[in-house]
Amino acid sequence: MTAKYDSNLELSIISCVLNKGNTFYEVQDIVQPNTFYWLPNRNMWEAIIQVADNDLYIDKVTVINQMEKNNSLSNYFTEVGGVNGRDAVEHIVSMNSNSDFIESYAIQLSEAKSIRDIMDLSDRAKELAMKGKSSAEILSILDIESGKISGNSGAILSSLKGLGSALEESIQTVMDALKGDSK
Asked: What is the dihedral of CA 122, 127, 128, 132, to 10 degrees?
């Protein structure tokens, strides 16, 4: 498990869609396969997208059939309880999450993905500093990558002005620590 990952949140979104297929269209622009942390859930979401792309009604039958075509059903298992295959899909359907809240679930899931991306970006900045990259090189890379994160998270660009300063301060702290001048 990692920070900002919630198994129940991921399964709730899938449960909503499997129980009420048209809810997929409410969140298709918010939730992408890589929004899910748990790889089996990514694979199921990909199957859901394929069902939608084929203009079929999204439910447990069509998703199970698509997962079988993708050879991903037998590899699907829930993180909690380790239920797999058809039994896992049945378990998710039985959660019967409230589809009135699917957009809220999707926003929360997208936010969790953005937080994970920021944590990864922070780790990358440290790696670049350890490899001796200049602060200008590091900030250039961080600027591009943070722009991608902000675009995916729906952040307002003007709110990122503070991010640049925060990143510069973080880079300086890492550089000072590498030199032995930690504050």
From this structure: 140
